[in-house]
Specification:
heterodimer; A: Ubiquitin-like (UB roll); DNA polymerase, domain 1; 2 domains; 5-stranded mixed β-sheet; 5 helices; 5 strands; 34% helix; B: Enolase-like, domain 1; 4-stranded antiparallel β-sheet; binds flavin-adenine dinucleotide; binds FE2/S2 (inorganic) cluster
Chain lengths: 157, 260
C-alpha cells in the first residue's frame, strides 16, 4: 500500500492504493472516472490513453504509484465547463465515432499529437495523422472520419 | 497482477540495495514490457525498483561520442538533433507514440527481445553499454534470446554511441505488433563496416560478416546483390519462414545503405 497523491483533471486527490494498481484501475475504480476505457489491457488498443503531465500514455501500462505527485488528465477533464474541447467537437462534427468505445483514447492521443506538432511548428498531413494514431484501434469507423476530425481540430486548436 | 512492492530510489547505490533486499526484485523503467509480463503472470517480482528517479535521462554529446541515458524515452531519441539521424529514425519507428513516450533505451536493451529495434542500433553502431559497474562493448553484450551480459543487480546507466561516417536503418514491421519482422542497421566508420540484423536470428540480434565484407569494398546497395545470406540459424514463424527472412535481410540491407 502506498499513499498516492496526484492531481487529476486539476483537482488534488489522495488515496491509499496497492502498489500493483494500474493507472487505469486507479482512475476507473478508485476515482470512478470511467471515461478512460480498458479494451485490451495489453498496451495495444489505446482505449485507455490519458495524459501524464500533458503527454499521452496508455494508462493500462503504468503503475499508479509511480506517478506520485504528478498531474493526470483524462477525457473527463478536457471540456471547459459546458464547452467541448475542439477535438471533442470535431469528432462530433465529423461523425468520428460509432460505438464510442475507442473515442476517449482516440481523443486524448489526438490532442497530444496536435499539440506536439504545433509546438514543433509542423503542419500535420493526413499521413502524419494516420501514423500518429497507430497506437489506437477502432473496430467501427474505418478511421476516415477520425482522420477528418483530427485535421479539423488541428486547424482550430 | 500479483502483489508487489514499489520502490523509487534516488541513487544508484540505493537501487542496488533495494534490488538485493527483495526475494525476487526487478528493475522497472518504462514498464512497457515488464508490466505486460506481470499481467500475464509470466513474472511476479516481489519488489519493483524504479530506475526513473536515478537521474539517468537525457542525451549528451562530447568529443564525438553521444551518450544516451538509460531512462531516456524513445520519443526523446526520436526528436533529438544530437543522435545520428539513423538512430533517431530507429527510435521514431518503435511501437506507437504512447509506447515511445514511456519505453526507454535501457529497458529495451536489458530485455533484448529478438524482434526489438535498439539491439540492431546498438550493435550496428558499435556502441558501448555503460553500467554502474563497467563498460560493455555491444559485441560482448547481446548473448541470445532475452539474454545479455548484465548481472541480476547491474543497472544500465547509459549507452555511448561513437561517431560514424555513415549509418542507416531499415525495418520491415510486423504490422500487428509493430516489432521487426526484420530490421537491418548498417554503419561505416574508421573502425570498419558493421551490419546488425534483428528480428531474423533464432539467437537474437547478430552481425552479418558477408554483408560487412561486401559493403567494406563498396558502400552501395548494389554491393549487397552478390552476398549469399544463409537461412541457417534464422527464425521461422507464421509471419515468415527462413527463406523469407533471408531475402528480407538483403532487401533491408540495401535500403539501409541507400538511406545512409
Ligand atoms: C504495443 C507495443 C509495441 C512495441 N513495439 C516495439 C517495436 O516496434 N520495437 C521495439 O524495439 N520495441 C517495441 N516495444 C517495446 C518497447 O520498446 C519497450 O519500451 C521496451 O521493450 C522496454 O522498455 P521499458 O523502458 O518499458 O522497460 P521495462 O518494461 O520497464 O523493463 C524491461 C526489462 O528491462 C529491465 N530494465 C529496465 N531498465 C533497466 C536498466 N536501466 N538497467 C537494467 N535493467 C533494466 C527490467 O528489469 C525488465 O526486465 C513495444 C511495446 C509495446 C507495448
Ligand atoms: S487498454 Fe490500454 S492499450 Fe488497450
Ligand atoms: S467507434 Fe467503436 S471502436 Fe471506434
Amino acid at each position: 500500500m502506498t499513499k498516492l497523491i496526484m492531481t487529476v483533471n486539476g483537482k488534488k486527490v489522495s488515496r491509499d492504493v496497492p502498489d500493483e494498481t494500474l493507472l487505469s484501475e486507479f482512475l476507473r475504480e478508485s476515482l470512478r472516472l470511467t471515461g478512460t476505457h480498458v479494451g485490451c489491457d495489453t498496451t495495444q488498443c489505446g482505449a485507455c490513453v490519458v495524459h501524464v503531465n500533458g503527454t499521452a500514455v496508455k494508462s493500462c501500462s503504468v503503475l499508479a504509484v509511480s506517478l506520485n505527485g504528478e498531474s493526470v488528465t483524462t477525457i473527463e477533464g478536457l471540456a471547459d465547463g459546458g464547452q467541448l474541447h475542439p477535438m471533442q467537437k470535431a469528432f462530433n462534427d465529423n461523425h468520428g465515432l460509432q460505438c464510442g468505445f475507442c473515442t476517449p483514447g482516440m481523443i486524448m492521443a489526438s490532442v497530444d499529437l496536435v499539440a506536439k506538432a504545433k509546438a514543433a511548428g509542423r503542419k500535420l498531413s493526413e499521413d502524419d495523422i494516420r501514423h500518429g494514431l497507430e497506437g489506437n484501434i477502432c473496430r467501427c469507423t474505418g478511421y476516415h472520419n477520425i482522420v477528418k476530425a483530427v485535421a479539423q481540430a488541428a486547424s482550430e486548436m | 497482477m500479483y502483489p508487489t512492492k514499489y520502490h523509487k530510489p534516488a541513487a544508484v547505490d540505493a537501487a542496488v540495495k533495494a534490488l538485493n533486499s527483495g526475494d525476487d526484485a526487478k528493475f522497472l523503467a518504462g514498464g512497457q514490457t515488464l508490466l505486460a509480463t506481470m499481467k500475464q503472470h509470466l513474472a511476479s517480482p516481489s519488489d519493483l525498483v524504479d530506475v526513473r528517479g536515478l537521474g539517468l535521462s537525457g542525451i549528451k554529446k562530447a568529443g564525438g561520442v553521444v551518450s544516451v541515458g538509460a531512462t531516456t524515452v524513445h520519443a526523446a531519441v526520436a526528436s533529438s538533433a544530437d543522435v545520428h539521424p539513423a538512430l533517431a529514425k530507429l527510435a521514431a519507428g518503435i511501437g506507437d507514440p504512447m509506447v515511445r513516450n514511456m519505453g526507454t533505451i535501457g529497458g529495451s536493451i536489458a530485455n533484448n527481445d529478438p524482434a526489438a529495434d535498439y539491439p540492431a542500433g546498438v550493435l550496428g553502431m558499435g556502441a558501448t553499454v555503460v553500467t554502474n559497474r563497467r563498460q560493455i562493448a555491444a559485441d560482448d553484450y547481446f548473448e541470445g534470446l532475452f539474454t545479455t551480459a548484465l548481472e541480476e543487480d547491474e543497472i544500465i546507466t547509459a549507452v555511448a554511441f561513437p561517431q560514424v561516417e555513415r549509418a542507416g536503418y531499415a525495418k520491415f514491421k510486423q504490422p500487428a505488433s509493430r516489432f521487426c519482422l526484420v530490421g537491418v542497421f548498417v554503419s561505416k566508420s574508421a573502425s570498419g563496416v558493421r551490419v546488425a540484423v534483428t528480428g531474423a536470428g533464432s539467437d537474437g540480434v547478430f552481425r552479418h560478416k558477408g554483408l560487412e565484407a561486401a559493403l567494406a569494398k563498396s558502400w552501395t546497395p548494389a554491393a549487397v546483390d552478390s552476398v549469399e545470406v544463409s537461412e541457417d540459424g534464422l527464425l521461422s514463424d507464421i509471419h515468415g519462414d527462413t527463406a523469407y527472412r533471408a531475402n528480407l535481410i538483403k532487401v533491408l540491407a540495401k535500403r539501409a545503405v541507400a538511406a545512409s
